[in-house]
Amino acid sequence: MEWYDRIVLLATGLVAIYILWRFYNHYRENRKLADVFYMVSFGVLLVAGLLLIAFTYDALDNPLVVLVSYLIPAGLSLGLITQFYPKYGMPYLIFVIVGLALIGITRILELDELGRIVLPIFHTAAGMIIFLLPIVVVREGRAPAGFLWVSIGGALIGLGGIALAFLKAGNQFLFFSEEVVFAILAPLLLLMALAFTWGFMKEMKSEDEALPTGG
User: Fold this and answer.
1) Residue 215: inside a domain, yes or no?
2) Does residue 71 form part of some domain?
3) DSSP secondary structure string for all residues of 168-192
4) Is residue 118 assigned to a domain?
5) pLDDT per residue of the chain (215 residues) written in tens, 0 to 9
6) Which of 59, 104, 145, 157 has the lowest CB atom count within 10 Å?
7) pTM score above 0.85
């Protein structure tokens, strides 16, 4: 890993710390379960970035890395569903738990054939929710236009996550060879974190402005 990658990963960690702080304050004021799921996702992103800085991309060879990395899109998509479509929150939570269990089983037991099927399915499902749901709620007027930055972050995490998942499963996704994935991984994580942070900040600001004031 080059020094440039470490600097970019460190910047990603700082962005993750900032948005974690914002979500924590938002949770203290509103006690919304969605904020907890968001914090889990960005907490995992922070830890993952620090592990990559400490152990370089060799850490990705650990079979549990794929399981942990799924928590990032899973937490974000679960938070979005819980926030905007709460009646589907519990069914989707069950779906996420099943995904974690199946991914964990295929990794630990080295069921490579099954893993090549399971991993893309759950990564793609979470990525599509992160990408599409903000577009829908913005069109419905339930979130500000700036919330579309979450969709941009979703496109980035979906593309990178699927490419990395295929590599770990022994296949190559489109032109994303191992060299290409590792070359763009650090800046991709930073751009993703910035897009998510800007989008969620816009939504939180809009939500706070909509609250009635006393007096």
Assistant:
1) no
2) yes
3) HTT--BTTB-HHHHHHHHHHHHHHH
4) yes
5) 678 889 999 999 999 999 999 999 999 988 899 999 999 999 999 988 888 888 777 767 676 677 777 888 999 999 999 999 999 999 999 999 999 898 888 877 877 777 778 877 888 899 899 999 999 999 999 999 999 999 999 888 777 666 666 565 555 555 566 677 777 788 888 999 999 999 999 998 887 766 655 43
6) 145
7) yes
